[in-house]
Every structure is written in C-alpha cells, then in structure tokens.
Specification:
Blueprint (H helix, E strand, L loop, with lengths): L2 H37 L3 H29 L1 H20 L4 H29 L6 H29 L3 H4 L1 H13 L7 H5 L4 H24 L4 H23 L7 H4 L2 H31 L4 H7 L1 H21 L1 H18 L7 H28 L5 H32 L12 H11 L2 H4 L32
Helix pairs in contact: 1-4, 1-5, 1-7, 2-3, 2-4, 2-9, 2-17, 3-4, 3-7, 4-17, 5-14, 5-16, 9-10, 9-17, 12-15, 12-16, 12-17, 12-18, 14-15, 14-16, 15-16, 15-18, 16-17, 17-18
C-alpha cells in the first residue's frame, strides 16, 4: 500500500471516528423531550444521562490513549467504534431511565477508547510539517457533524421516535470500524514495551471523573453546596496524589517527555480556557435567545449558525496559517478573535452584532482548535501519540464543563439586576466575564513555538522509531 493511500485511509478513519461522537452528542439534544415523556424520566434523570456519559469519557480518555500507544491505535479504534455502536443499539431498547443512564455510561467508555486513536492515526501517518491540513479537515468535520446533529435529530424524532437517534449510530460505527481495519500504521516500540502504570491511571481517572461530575451538577446544586465543595476538594486531592505518584513512577501514565513539553502543556491550557469561554457563552446565549427573546430551539440554532459555518470554513484557513506563520501567531490571533466574538455577544442578540459575534467566535475557536491539536499531536513523540491525544481531548472536555458551570452560576446573579422592562436588551455582564476569561488564553498561547512546524523523524518515514507492536506495520522507506 502506497504512503499516499495509507494517509488517505487514516485521515478518513480519523474524521469518521471523530464525527460519529460529535454527531451523537448533538442529535441527542433533539431527543430529550420525547425521551423524558416515554420513559417517565424527570429532569434530574435526563441530566444524569448526559453526566454519566461525560464522566465515563473524562475518566478514561488518558488511559485509552496510553492503551492505544501500547496495543495499537487501530485496535482501539475498532473496539471503540464497535462498542459505541453496540451500546447505541442497547440504548435504543432501554426500557427505563435507569437503564438509559447505565448504558450511556457504557457508551462513554467506548467513546473514550476511540477518540484518542483518531488523533494518533494522524500523528503516525503524517510527518510533522504536514499535520496542519489533516487536523484542519478533522476539525471541520466535527463542525459539520455538530451542526447537522440537531437537524438530523429533529427529523428522526419527528418521524421515527427518539430511539432512532441511537439506531443511526449503528451503521456509522460499522462503516468507521471497516475503514479502521483497512488502515496500516507504523508504531513506536518504546510505549509498547513499557509497563502500564495502573496506580496513576486510577488516580487520574478518579480526579477527572469527580471533577467532571461535580462541574456538570454544580449549576443545579449551587457552588456553595456541600456536594459541590466536597467534589472539588476530592478532585483536587486526587490530582495532587496523582502528581506525587507520577514523580515516583518508573513508567508514568503521562510520560515525562510529554509532561515537560512546553508546547504540549501550553496548548492544553489554551484549549481548556478557550473552550470554557466559548461553551459558557453558548450556554448563556441559548438561555437569552429562548427564555428572554422567546425564540424556539430551531430559530436560536439558526441565529447561531454563523459560528458553525466559520468553524468549518476557518479550520482549513487556520491550518494554512499554522503552516505559514507558526503556532504562536495563529493561536494568539485565534484567542483574540474568540474573546472579541464573545464580547460582541454581550449586546442584544436580535441585531447584526449577534451574527457577527457568532461568526468571529467560530473563526477564533477554529484557529485555537487547529493550533492546539496540531501542536500537541505534532510535538509529541510518535510512541506517545495516543496519550497526548487523550490529554488534549480531556482539556477540551474539562473546559466545556467548566465554562457551562461558570455561566450557569453567574446568570442568576446577573438576572436579579437586569431591568425587567427590557429583558434581553441590556448588555450581558456574563458575556463580558467570559470574554475576559477567554482572553487569558493569550498567556499560554504566547508560549507556543513561533516557528513553523518542522518535519519529524518519528511517525512517518523513520525506520529507527518504528516496529511491529500491535498494529499491522508497513515499511516506511
């Protein structure tokens, strides 16, 4: 199999795997009301169906990436997609809300297995100086899937019922697994030979699971509630214990070469902060459009459509900018655009500033996503492509949960001081706060490399780092 064919197959499998998870997350939104009625679920149970999934994903992303580095990313992608499809089929037959919650957690486990592999495939089949374009295409595909989800979900629920939004995952999972089986990737022998650090894996899983669950439930419980404070303290204690354990471990779950890499850590910090700002802004904007301006879900989605369009269009542009101008300039520009877009959304959302704000936010977030992904995956040694992919996606997930929780916590306080005579007309302090939060991502962005991505010896075209350790290998001559 030629190198060009191998790269195209890997890119297609990567895009398909990332898109199926993005699509599932958004089609489910349209199914929530029908699902609650048929299963007799209350609001808390419906929220836990989402929280159970998020907690499972957050807990296992890093471990899944490490397992892929040891046993082969194709293997993890196939297991993950088939398991995701099987869990989706089981959810489609869930008889009660309890079964739904449990099966969503199982689905989250398999989603965690497949996600790091979708990034690792790109790292192993593309040289460092050619990663920007495939990363941009993957980002654009996620944007398309996310935008199509509510429309597809609404159609399926209206004509076939809520269970159909899970059935649709089955053929998509089978197709993705078939693509993955056709991929041949070189692998680095180092990670395969290292012993898995079970203690470190358990500690980071505990910390991330508790943190994600706490942030997801904080808006309903309140930030000062005992369960929220206990959850945050538990997550912090587990993370401190994890850091201490990693310093002593012979083979840490997060390799020292990764933990000490400034481009990797700065990219993840930038992504976490920017994701917090963007998803917090989307949460607040959705509330303002539906509850204050009286727009239905479809009208609100259409008003926010420029964000998705600019993410899709902006991702390839950001990829080109990354290759031409380097990570630092591209990232700083993206952060400033995202912060500016959120600030524009602080003004009334029924004017032209809303469309402009969503568009600028989408363009900025596309630049941040492409730069963070390209830098994290490109800078890491090929043997650790999976674990850095898991860390990158963990940073994005924690940022999303944090931003939503912060916005939900700020909104009630702001609402008490908003003029009742003109709801939705006054400038929104929540958006200004989130814009300021997003702007802080300039600090880690400034630590990224100023030079253009350099070609690397590992991952493609380098026989000294490659070997047969789990995936079916190919000659890299």
């Amino acid at each position: 199999m030629s190198g060009a064919v191998r790269r195209r197959l890997a890119l297609t499998a990567s895009v398909a795997g990332a898109a199926i998870v993005a699509l599932d997350g958004t089609v489910l939104l349209a199914a929530q009301p029908s699902l609650r009625r048929e299963l007799g679920a209350d609001l808390a149970q419906a929220q836990w169906a989402g929280t159970a999934y998020l907690v499972a994903v957050a807990a296992l992303l890093v471990l899944a990436g490490r397992l892929g580095d040891r046993h082969g990313h194709v293997r993890l992608l196939v297991i993950g997609t088939l398991g995701f499809g099987a869990a989706s089929a089981a959810i489609a037959f869930a008889p009660t809300a309890g079964w739904l919650i449990a099966l969503r957690a199982v689905q989250g486990v398999f989603a965690a297995l497949l996600q790091p592999a979708t990034l690792a495939l790109l790292r192993l089949t593309y040289p460092g100086d050619r990663l920007a374009r495939p990363v941009a295409l993957r980002t654009a595909a996620i944007g398309v899937a996310s935008a199509a989800g509510p429309v597809l979900g609404g159609f399926l629920v209206a004509h076939l019922g809520w269970r159909s939004v899970f059935v649709i995952n089955i053929p998509l999972a089978l197709a993705t697994a078939a693509l993955a089986l056709a991929v041949r990737t070189p692998r680095a022998p180092r990670a395969a030979a290292e012993r898995l650090d079970a203690g470190g894996a358990a500690l980071i899983a505990l910390a991330l699971a508790v943190l994600t669950g706490t942030l997801s439930q904080a808006p309903g419980r309140g930030w000062s509630a005992a369960p929220t404070l206990l959850g945050l303290l538990t997550a912090a204690a587990a993370m401190v214990a994890f850091a201490a354990h990693e310093r002593r471990a012979g083979h840490p779950i997060v390799p020292r070469a990764v933990a000490r890499s400034t481009p990797v850590t700065a990219s993840m910090a930038m992504l976490l902060v920017t994701a917090a700002g963007m998803f917090g802004a989307l949460f607040s904007a959705t509330f303002r459009m539906q509850d204050l301006l009286g727009l239905d879900a479809l009208a609100g989605s259409l008003r926010a459509l420029p964000l998705t369009v600019l993410m899709v269009v902006g991702a390839p542009v950001a990829g080109a900018a990354l290759g031409r101008h380097g990570a630092r300039r591209t990232a700083v520009t993206g952060v400033l655009l995202a912060a500016s877009g959120i600030a524009a959304l602080s003004f009334p959302l029924d004017g032209w500033t809303a469309g402009a704000g969503f568009a600028v936010l989408g363009a900025g977030f596309a630049a941040v996503m492409v730069t963070a992904t390209g830098t994290v995956v490109g800078d890491a040694p090929a043997g650790y492509a999976g674990v850095v992919g898991g860390l990158k996606q963990t940073a994005g997930n924690i940022g999303t949960a944090l931003g939503t929780a912060v916005a939900a916590g700020l909104m009630p306080a702001v609402a008490t001081g908003t003029s009742a005579a003109a709801p939705g007309r006054a400038a929104d302090p929540v958006m200004f706060t989130l814009a300021a939060l997003t702007a802080l991502a300039v600090l880690p962005a400034a630590l990224l490399p100023a030079s253009r991505p350099a070609a690397r010896k590992t991952g493609h075209g380098a026989r000294d780092d490659l070997g047969d350790h789990g995936d079916r290998t190919v000659s890299t001559r």
